[in-house]
Amino acid sequence: MSHIVFFLVPGVHLLDLAGPAQVFFAAADFGHPYTLGYVAEQPQVPSAQGLPLLARLDWPELGPEDLIVVPGWRAPTLADSPAIGTASLQALKNHHARGGTVASVCAGAEALGQAGLLDGRRCTTHHDVQEELALRHPGATVVRDVLFTADDRVVTSAGIASGIDLALHLIATRHGPAVGAKVARNMVVYARRNGHEPQASAMFRHRSHLDDTVHRAQDLIDARFAEPLPLPSLAAAVGVSERTLTRLFTRATGGLTPLRYQQTLRLERAEHFISHGATVEAAARSVGFEDPRMLRRLRARPAS
């Protein structure tokens, strides 16, 4: 079980906090429990929206698998941000030095900058304060037009709701894109493309719909894409006819049949194996193709 500790600063934005917290809370429903904790420099923290929040004053013992998240706060500029004590900044720095991950949402990147964690790393923040962040922390590389960045266990996200995208990315990285897709579906949110950076998996690209029948079919394919999955068996598993499943699936995914979706997942996994030194033949066998010629044909086909 991993600990997720949110460091709260006065004026914290509720969605900066609640969005990522809900992602990790929902992950428990899929067998990946997290313990959520809240730390601040005062026992009661006023939020920007007026709701007071309670927090502990002492930091729990954290290990490399644990995560600290700094949600953003309301302030006219980063220079006007609430003061953060030396001990808190040192706690952020120490956790990263021990192998842990530190993340921020929106203006929370300023806390990471004050802790020295942005120096030499890529980062982002809300578009209103990106230029100021770059000026205040010249050792950082501030990336524009992305939802989040990840660089050497320092993860930063843009404004407000992008904290959900950041948390989904961390879930997918730790537990696989299928789990990330399930959590996104559970929260009824779309997995959004991260600016100029290509989305990592078809499990995300083709999940931006609300058809529960298709989601259930995708859950089965995601979990067993290397196995034979005949359309009659897949349709029976989700309780519809073969014709209905094909029609719903094609409409929800922008033109993919269940077989084409399965082939797309196989292709992506095979490309991963090939990029790590596997031959086409070995990669084909690993993802369920009996004939490597099918993999070669799929690799030559334009991407979905």
TrEMBL record:
<feature type="domain" description="HTH araC/xylS-type">
    <location>
        <begin position="215"/>
        <end position="304"/>
    </location>
</feature>
<dbReference type="InterPro" id="IPR018060">
    <property type="entry name" value="HTH_AraC"/>
</dbReference>
<dbReference type="InterPro" id="IPR002818">
    <property type="entry name" value="DJ-1/PfpI"/>
</dbReference>
<dbReference type="InterPro" id="IPR009057">
    <property type="entry name" value="Homeodomain-like_sf"/>
</dbReference>
<dbReference type="Pfam" id="PF01965">
    <property type="entry name" value="DJ-1_PfpI"/>
</dbReference>
<keyword id="KW-0804">Transcription</keyword>
<dbReference type="Pfam" id="PF12833">
    <property type="entry name" value="HTH_18"/>
</dbReference>
<dbReference type="GO" id="GO:0043565">
    <property type="term" value="F:sequence-specific DNA binding"/>
</dbReference>
<keyword id="KW-0805">Transcription regulation</keyword>
<dbReference type="InterPro" id="IPR052158">
    <property type="entry name" value="INH-QAR"/>
</dbReference>
<protein>
    <submittedName>
        <fullName>AraC family transcriptional regulator with amidase-like domain</fullName>
    </submittedName>
</protein>
<dbReference type="GO" id="GO:0003700">
    <property type="term" value="F:DNA-binding transcription factor activity"/>
</dbReference>
<dbReference type="InterPro" id="IPR029062">
    <property type="entry name" value="Class_I_gatase-like"/>
</dbReference>
